[in-house]
Amino acid sequence: MKNVTITLDEKVAQWARVEAAKAGKSLSRWLGERLENDMRHAAYSLTDLESFLSGPGYPGIAANMPRRDDLYDDRDLRRQQHSDLQPRSQRTDEKDQGG
User: Which stretches does UniProt call biased (Basic and acidic residues) (predicted)?
Assistant: First the structure.
């Protein structure tokens, strides 16, 4: 163990003494254990984050979505065009009919 000297605000020091007394430990031991727990938690959090980001690749919601090509396929768009419609009739001008 390494001995260190720290400087605390009086209110912080008083709070830490009370918390250490509640835990039945000396201030030095209580602070050491608290810092050690924080260090482990930070290491686990970083490891978990790195594992998540470099994971095998979660397919996510997009895996079940149709592809763009499937959505805009010409065959599907042509279903709205009716091939059995007659071509537009040629209208004659009313002037030509003498009207």
Answer: 66-82, 90-99
Q: Which residues contact 33 (CB under 8 A, 6 or more apart)?
A: 25
Identify the pLDDT of residue 58: 65
Q: Give the mean pLDDT per block of 10 residues along the chain (99 residues).
A: 90 96 95 92 82 73 75 65 68 60
Per-residue DSSP letters for 24-85?
Answer: TS-HHHHHHHHHHHHHHHHHHHHHHHHHHHTSS----GGGGSPPHHHHT-HHHHGGGS-TTP
Three-state secondary-structure class, residue 94: coil
pTM given for the model = 0.46
Q: Which letter does DSSP use for residue 31 in this model?
A: H
Hey, which CATH number is domain 1-56, 3.30.70, 1.10.10, 1.10.1220, 1.10.8? Answer: 1.10.1220
DSSP 99: -
Domain boundaries, the chain: 1-56
